[in-house]
Amino acid sequence: MSLSLRHISKSFGRATIFSDISLDVAEGETVVLFGPSGTGKTVLMRIIAGVEDADNGIIMIDNRDVTNSSPDNRGVGMAFQNFALFPHMSAYENVASALTAREGSATIIQERVNSIVKLLKIDHVMGHSPRELSNGQKQRTALARALVGAPRVLLLDDPLRNVDAKLRYEMRLELPNLLRRFGSAVLYVTQDYKEAMALGHRIAVLQGSRIIQAASPIDIYERPESLIVAKLFGDPTINVLPVMPRLHGDEVIIEIDGVSISIGQYYRDAVGIEASLALRPEHLVVCSTPGANSFPVEIVAETPLNEKTVLLTRTRSGTEVLVSMPAINEGTIPLGLGFVSFDPKSVLLFDRSTERRLRYFDR
Amino acid sequence: MDDEIVLSIDKVDKIYERRNLAPVHAVKNLSMQVKKGEIVALLGSSGCGKTSTLRMIAGFESLSNGSLILNGRRIDTLPPSARNVAMAFEGYSLYPPLTVRDNISFALKSLRLPVNKMAEKVSKVAEMIEIGSILDRYPSSISGGQQQRASLARALVRSADLYLLDEPMGQLEPQLRAVLRGRIKRLLNENRMTAIFVTHDQTEANALADRIAVMEDGMLQQFASQHELKEHPANLFVATFIGEPPMNVFDAMVQRHGTQIVFHIKNGPNITVASTEATKLVGAREFVTIGIRPHNVIVSSGSLKAKIISNQWLGDQSHLALSVAGKLLVAVSHHRVVAQVGNEIAYDLPNNCLHVFDNTNGAALIHGVEKS
């Protein structure tokens, strides 16, 4: 394992930033550290880099305990959201600065810098000083500096945060290929769930000082362990309805505003539990007549969202339920009374008190 | 919505004079009309002139040229308070000595409502905007996002000829933003309130506005519904600015074979079009720019082939980048595309989704040609 964190804890005064964080990142793997602002993601990066000390725990890089090693002895490269370029150096010198601290002849350094800046398409601005660069060029320069030393561990702290939407999108597509060439273990911080899903082989969700789930993007999205995780991923946000599943014969039945709906045999454990039914907006369909798995709603408004159409509906008891679909022409679906139907296989059920996902049996 | 004009912006310029420096021409010859009950977004990147425009309407900036007519009254010569305009601006802050409730109530003072009626109005708007629980707090003790919502509530509770909102939801968490957008739109529509808001976020513009004014470099590029902006962008700027992810564009050489016209993308596919209409619109041009939106690119089927550079599944959409003509062709599918990076995949660029632009000035020539 290229990077292993074991039981890392950190407090500032009485404030616990995180407790007992353990995480592995393999060679060539990108793990995204995802969480709302203020969850200590940057602090964890600083601890791995060695510019901040952990209160407890061990950091291993290539099976070597580096917990007490100095920052330049760890084989860690970093790039931050605010770029942190040296203002008095040219872009070229900034990139090369990561190498001059080590051994290596001038020609080797030059070759390595040139090859990476070409790859990042910033070779034409290497003579410029940082203030002459656009944000996109600054970000690529910082990335080049982080990569040029071919670090065993690469820490990227929200590197696309301050670049415009178009470039951010392009980089989101290109970054995985770039990272693949270097084979570093990458720990990548972002607050954008789409970026996390696009870039991460795995995503570690930080919440309330702990990693509450670490899994592949698909597992995080389709099998979130808690309602918090379910709500952090998806646009629009997942819908939540209170239900109390009961058993009818062999089938599990839920009731929404007096309408009984069978969700099959998948959630036997949920019977008799006060639960939250979570439905992804894109798994819902609106219809004008009731179906087998539908409940009545008032369709209140239609809003376009990127290439989707989002319908705001309200159940009889007043819960807002969003339904999304690939973009359709405005006014195609009439507002007013209607029904929302769903595939029982797509539902997620959570225990309302613990917010943990209830067990699902797929037979 | 009827066609009664509420606000008429007529040939407005804004020039900022600067000592020892060249003046900045922030807004250039802007003319547009806003109808009764309409919600209009001023959309553009920073420095495009959208905020200057809003500030001129509010009365925080003078006009260098032109005029503003609101409900038949010329207002550009009036002070802000005499314009009957409600505003939520970042700089137009809450009164620190008053609670949030009193800040909102203050906007209703001139109506001389009975106390219970006033309280009812305030709590209704506060609840809608999710600040019901902080009504008795003071501005200094609430977060930036809460201040923004309080200021929004203060503007929306009033009755005014026009509502001006400057990045109304810029500081809010994405999830709350989505919910509030729907509610605010509903409030504005139900009461036929006329509103103009500034944003740099096209998702926000699309979600709230009936029509969007796209600005760039001080000039109005296009003022239309989002559907129109997407389907019939006036020029290459609007075409590539509107839409997420952005439209794919390629330079193409034009060749003519009888009634057919072939757009030859260098090191890329040839697109053949048999349409007399298209032939006429392209005219004698030798080069054009071809555009197609990522959602219109067909993947997994079609006669063309390209190498997959990346393939990302976001839970409800697949985003693919294909290597085409030395560039990336981005394709978005609402189905999960299971295909390995590095492999080839079939794709198609349907003719009816092609946009063609003049390659010198970017003016749009064609939006979608019939199948050849």
**Can you give the mean pLDDT of chain A?**
90
Give, in spatial order, the strands making up the sheet with the most strands of chain A. Answer: 6-7-8-3-9-10
- Rg estimate of chain B, integer Å: 25 Å
The fraction of residues in strands of chain A falls at 25-35%
Describe the model.
Chain A is an alpha+beta fold and 363 residues long. Chain A has 2 domains: 3-232, Rossmann fold; 239-351, OB fold (Dihydrolipoamide Acetyltransferase, E2P), CATH 2.40.50.140. Chain A has helices at 41-49, 91-100, 106-119, 135-148, 165-182, 193-199, 217-222, 227-232; strands spanning 3-12, 15-25, 30-34, 56-61, 64-65, 76-80, 153-157, 185-190, 202-207, 210-215, 239-243, 246-248, 251-256, 259-262, 275-279, 284-287, 294-305, 308-315, 320-326, 336-342, 348-351. In chain A, the strands form 5 sheets. Chain A has a 6-stranded mixed β-sheet, with helices on both faces. Helix content of chain B is 23%, strand content 37%. Chain B has 9 helices and 20 strands. By secondary structure, chain B is an alpha+beta fold. In chain B, strand 15 and strand 16 form a beta hairpin. Classes of the chains: A alpha+beta (363), B alpha+beta (372). The interface between A and B is large, with 40 and 33 residues.
